[in-house]
Structure prediction request, 454 residues.
Amino acid sequence: MPDTAQAVAEPVAQNQGDSADSKTKAQAADFPEAVATAATGAGGSIDILLDMSIPVTVTIGTTQIPIRRLLHLGPGSVVKLDKPIDSPMDLYLKDTKFATGSVVIVDGRFAVKIKQILGLGDAKTDQKQ
Amino acid sequence: MTQTTETIPGRAKIQQLLAAIGSNSRDDSAQVEAVDYDWHLPHFFNSKQMKQLGVFTAKVAALIAEKFAALCQKNFEVTIASTSEHFAGQFLGQGQDNNTQGPRNYYLPFGLGPEDPCGFASIPPQTAVIWATQLLGDASSKEGQNRSFSDLEMALLYDMTRSVVEAIAAANEKCAFRVSADSMTDSLPIQLKGTEEFCKITFKVKTVGSEAVSEAHILVLCEKLAPAIADSTQPIAKFSDKDITSAIQAHVEKISIPVTVQLACVPVTVEQALNLAVGDILLLDKKIDEPALLIAAGRTVCKGLCAKSAGKYAIAVTDTFFETI
Prediction:
């Protein structure tokens, strides 16, 4: 049990009688020990999170580059990536790769057409670097 | 299949056969000697340098004998008992606890300048008694090592100890140490962190014809002692902090790190994500003439246009953000 701390406030009016009123006692908070037990809940539904926003990131590819070369990059530099030109783009839900797709143009803007949802059958999931 | 022992040649027979063809078997008794590496001690000097240090300390010993002789008008024999390396942490407990019972060593700091002590002479109490009295002819003093010294005795002890420092300086001009205190002290005279590497030279002093032997120590930072033996070793170069940083940066710059080219990032709700299916088109909020981002270590370092190079995706850099990161 933690020691009880006692803070003594400066008395405002010492001649008003009860000196106990001029003292504020502070006691250390003591939280009970929590013991994990087997989950008994029926399990929540993701429905309560349906309106939560998650960033979807489309990456073209990755590569390893020496720091020296990275620091010397400038306008006109070309960084070749590891991915062949006919490979699909990777789509990440936050940091988790969840799909692949191909880039298309819709009304002058980039869009991606879903080619594969990962996690189905033999597809592997991946973590964003 | 079994084989009787009679068909297997014995060790003696094998030796005979090998001798007949001019080959000797390896001596099984030969053992490889292994010496424990003491991690508690520094290894600033290699074995070759330690030998050179031995030559240097022998010269110091001879000079101490000369200086003591000149000071006391007697002949002295000074020998080096040991030369060893220690981390300063081993000394930190010495001479700092004022409550420690019993006699304590006397110290005299020295260095290349008065403000830069790099070592100290350490005189055990029993040696202090000998040096301050018996070696100076005051044989009448038979009191123990616990007694306090008079001012005159402390001055004589100081002179003796200072001559030790002068002997080091005379042995090699690159170790031109000078005492950096006007009197002896009974607490460590140098501020130590504990990781400094010290060379401890223990020497014994004896008056010729006498049996009384006194022992004292010289402790010097290894790096300050190194120039004394540096003639035949690698030159000790001095580098600035900037030089060191540049050298390390050159190594760091050789490291390859992963970079990612991100075409776009668009927020979707969980409901939209759950409803995605193959064939769906996800609109990205980016015009086709807008650049992609090159991301390293979570930071956008460049932007550029998507391209291809030698059959692979590429990014043609149009701008960098190194200045703003």
